[in-house]
Amino acid sequence: MNSVKIKDAYNKRKEMYFNYINRIKSSMPVDIYSVINTTIVKNPFNHYFPLKFFLKDFTKENNIKIFFIYIFKFYFKQFYYYFTYVFSYCIFKFKNSQGNESKEYANYIGIDIPFFIDKILTRNEYKDDYYFLELYLILEKYNIKYVYIPRLYGISKNPFKLIKLLKVLQSDNKDYIFEFELLSIKDLLILFMMILKYPFKTLRLLQKVSLEEDYLFNNELIKNFDNIGLESFTRYLFGKNIASKKIKKIYSWSEFQGIERSFNYGIRTFNNKIELNGCQFFLNYDTYFNSFVDDLDFEQKTSYHNVFVNGKKYLLDRKKVKYLEGVSLRYKELFKYSNHNIHNQDNLKTLILGSYFLNETQYMLESVNNKNNIIFKNHPAVDIKNLNISQNINIMNENIYDLFKYSNLVISSASGTLIEAVACGLSAIIVASETNLTANPFSNYGKGEIWDIAFSKDDVTLVYNKLLKFRVNNIKKINEIALWYKQNYFIEPTEQNIMKVFEIGKDR
């Protein structure tokens, strides 16, 4: 597949795509089965409908045939996870017989974030060092009560890990609301019926064919049975049960995926007095469609009341959902960084940041094989043994801000870290995806001067030389662009800014 072709097709048909999905969305029956549908959620990295829509890939398939194939796959997977979920429920009830089911958590704020069980068990403690970081110290400083609302990852294949997790968490003084402690036998029966009904409820979304896009949508709608997760159902039940609590407001780490929509839908369907706040304290992309919250989402009760973003550049104009400036809790080091080497370009290195996708990382490494002074930091989710790395590339494991200090250019794909690099005064190259939409975190500002996109290996060399040449006589302009990105994409996580976002010390 050609990355330039994908880019051109996307630019030409993206508005048509949004209009098409929103037309279906605005006319569909609104219930848990429709609001979690992966085709409607429109994550372009979770299924192929967006890409095929842009490329006009209207290959016709037999809907009846693919229905039977994908419904079998759906039930096989979902009921496997259902029974492990029931087993996890039994383990929780047995190990946590003195639960907090009756605790109301009045005047608490809820912190809704992922819990990666393997990481917690390795550390033998729970510590949030990724999502809300500095917030907890300030909440405790001002005696604000809070409770974690965990999204548990890592027990679906091994429920026995839940025993170890509970033991670890019982040793600290934090408050947690687990979905299992609010779950009833009736809920488990409801969950079973939801799984049974989902494929047939999805068929309500099939379109009467009048366009070639309708053929594509109907095919992909059925194929996407396979992309739904059990969590989308269980989080709805969790939200419904949370709605009975007296929690004042909830702050959720938000990419606005199906599991977040179902959780919000469960709460707002049964209790619209709990204030829901989506926290998008990350560097977003124009192509990450699912993350953008619309007024229609608010009307269908899947959205938050407020969406807090990482910088003012991400603010969107909505009538019903409030988009507000948040705080860059994950980027504190950016505001401490000082690039002492920006006026000294001699002997600085090119930094390659590995991607989550193995093939993209290998592609980047091959594109710089003929260059010197290359350093490489691997993505933590990729086994470096699976990469073929040239001997002239030095592997580094330091903090990225330490690597920035002796680098002048960064190459990566689908990485918000490139924005951090540019805000620190480094140049950046995005290596375009050849198989999907390219996740470009930049605005057009500074394109061809401090950052650019490479659509092939030859392009990498051309863009590399162009950006380094621009730096030689344009350091003042480089500094101007870097400052613009820092001011527009980030908000310093000072105590005052954190207190403002989370309304600490302010009565409503």
Please estimate the helix content. 40-55%
Q: How would you sum up the global shape?
A: globular
Provide mean pLDDT, rounded.
91
Radius of gyration: 24 Å
Low-confidence stretches: none
Classification by helices and strands: alpha/beta
Q: Give the strand order of the largest sheet, numbering strands 1, 2, ... along the chain.
A: 2-1-3-4-5-6
What's the structural blueprint in terms of helices and strands?
Elements: H1 3-27, H2 32-35, H3 38-41, H4 49-55, H5 63-95, E1 109-116, H6 117-123, H7 135-141, E2 146-153, H8 161-169, H9 179-182, H10 185-202, H11 212-223, H12 230-242, E3 249-253, H13 258-270, E4 275-280, H14 295-299, E5 306-309, E6 322-325, E7 349-353, H15 358-367, E8 374-377, E9 393-395, H16 400-404, E10 407-412, H17 417-423, E11 427-431, E12 451-454, H18 457-473, H19 475-489, H20 495-501
Parallel strand pairs: 1-2, 1-3, 3-4, 4-5, 5-6, 7-8, 7-10, 8-9, 10-11, 11-12
Helix pairs in contact: 1-4, 5-10, 5-11, 6-8, 10-12, 12-13, 15-18, 17-19
What report would you give on this structure?
With 508 residues, the chain is an alpha/beta fold. 44% of the residues lie in helices and 12% in strands. It contains 20 helices and twelve strands. The strands form two sheets. Strands 2-1-3-4-5-6 form a six-stranded parallel beta sheet. A six-stranded parallel beta sheet has the order 9-8-7-10-11-12, with helices on both faces. The longest helix has 33 residues, at 63-95.
